Amino acid sequence: MHRTLLAVGMVCAVLSPLTGFSQVSPPASNSQDEERRVFAAEDEYVAAEVSRDEAALRRLVDDRFVFNASNGTTSGKDDLIAGVLKMAMIGQTIRERTVLIDGDIAIVFGTADLKFAGPDNTESLSSLRYTSTYVNRQGHWRMLALQMQKRASE
């Protein structure tokens, strides 16, 4: 009996690295590195949104992208980019955010203040709560989904 358990344990120890099954957690630095990569992709998206950089937006937004609007409608990548190019956004500040990563999917929860230029040199500020979903395709994080809603008054 003890020999059987020992043999099973040895087989599992030998096969674990080959099959990808392991009881050892990945090093924390790897997950922190991946979090930084997700945030870097999001920062690049925000910069492209503010500067209305169509080429960067097309590269950063996944072809299967879906925007889930607060009015109950959804739209895709082309509609998002067309809308961004029409906006008079002059700045965006991310106030806080966290990320949850599971394999090739990352979900970012955050708040952002968007500043817009209005008529007669006026400016307006929109404070939003957002959830953005990223997918890792061939080593690059791409925005797969986005939902934004106005923050309640503080």
Task: Please outline the helices and strands.
Elements: H1 2-19, H2 28-51, H3 54-60, E1 61-68, E2 74-75, H4 77-86, E3 89-102, E4 105-117, E5 123-137, E6 140-150
Parallel strand pairs: 1-6
Antiparallel strand pairs: 1-2, 3-4, 4-5, 5-6
Brief summary of the model shown:
Helices cover 38% and strands 41% of the residues. The protein is of the alpha+beta class and 154 residues long.
Provide key terms for this protein:
disordered N terminus, Nuclear Transport Factor 2, Chain: A, alpha+beta, 154 residues, single chain
If you had to describe this structure to a student in words, what would you say it looks like?
The protein is α+β, with helices and mostly antiparallel strands and 154 residues long. It has one domain (30-150): Nuclear Transport Factor 2, Chain: A (Roll). Helix content is 38%, strand content 41%. It contains 4 helices and 6 strands, in the order H-H-H-E-E-H-E-E-E-E. The chain has helices at residues 2-19, 28-51, 54-60, 77-86; strands spanning 61-68, 74-75, 89-102, 105-117, 123-137, 140-150. The protein has a 6-stranded mixed β-sheet with strand order 2-1-6-5-4-3. Strand 5 (123-137) and strand 6 (140-150) form a beta hairpin. Helix 2 packs antiparallel against helix 3. The radius of gyration is 21 Å and the shape is globular. The model is unreliable at 1-29 (pLDDT under 50).
